[in-house]
Predict the 3D structure of the following.
Amino acid sequence: MNQRFQIDRNAFGLRRVHAILQRQITAALAALRQSHGSDDELHRARKRMKDARATLRLLRPALPKRTFQHENHLLRDAGRAIGAARDNRVLERTLRRMAHGAGSRSAAMSRFAGQLHQQAQAARAAALREGIHRSAAHLEKALGNSASWPSLPRGWKALRRGLRRTYRQGRRMAKTNAHDASAESLHEWRKRSKDLRSQLEVIAPLQHASLEKMTDRLHLLTDELGEEHDLAVLRQRLQGAPEGLKASARDALEKRIAKRRAKLRRKALKAGKKAYTERPARFAARLRDYFRRWPR
């Protein structure tokens, strides 16, 4: 992660984290304004928005409830305004990857892939025409609002509370999915784990080796859950595939998808068990020790 999105020794406490949030929003705005609608450009802008939401959650304990909710909704809506442009392209690529070698190269399957491609193109056109403008408007408003916040506390207590909250949510989802995983619960777990991963990157300069290992495991976890989610969405969309798709081709592809999803779930649960092994109270106590050693 870029050092301008990390805490440093020159600015102590939540004020530095507030500044990081503003820089993340500014970076998302810059990516949008420079965008020509490519996958990489939209992905870069969207990633900054997600990082900003995770950083906002770090500040949540120090903010009025109404302020947090309003800013969170603005950042959420900014991401949604351009989300479909890339999501449809990812779905198209996922289909082509899974269909390859699964005996699914029929004309009907090609038509289905073509439909997804057209939808991806239409979503990109809509993002260029309207989505980028709406997304930028939400970001500009969020940035302006954040500039008027009252001065935040100097210490790290609220930051530790924010980290503990995110960790506790992810740990609960890990337990839930270990007993009864669903596409929805796995996707929610991924979002909370991505939040924690982003938040740990903000405090990277003070990280102990154990936190660095946790960050690596969260990267693995979220990557696996991301692919699992793409396959779950593809499985749903396959139900509306073009007429003429042979049952044998559909069954072969669905079996391939199911097998891959099962493997990803097993790997994700294994990585999640290691990432979320501590009780939240122990995790928070360890963070308190690290922050106490941080120069003032």
In short: The mean pLDDT is 87.
